[in-house]
Amino acid sequence: MEASGPGDSHDAKSGKGPLAQRIDPTREKLTPAQLQFMHQVQLTQWQKTLPQRRTRNIVTGLGIGALVLAIYGYTFYSVSQERFLDELEDEAKAARARALARASGP
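^ thats the sequence. predicted structure below, dont judge the formating
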């Protein structure tokens, strides 16, 4: 028995035909018909995967938008809950009152 090589036209183990080989159009001389066929196949593959890619892009965009809105909303919520400025103002008023009491006391 001969061993299967990369150039064999039929793989006996899997029963499948040969796989397409990658071609670098810049290194190999291709005819205009071959280039046109390559572009046609690429366009067909692109159109076949376009709806799935579009759906993924929409889901990703909605996810990022929801995250941004959540951060924005949480920021507004946490800022509205902050009372430390009110406490600082109360302490400042108390300090002023003590200072006035000392100045007018003795």
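The mean pLDDT is 82.
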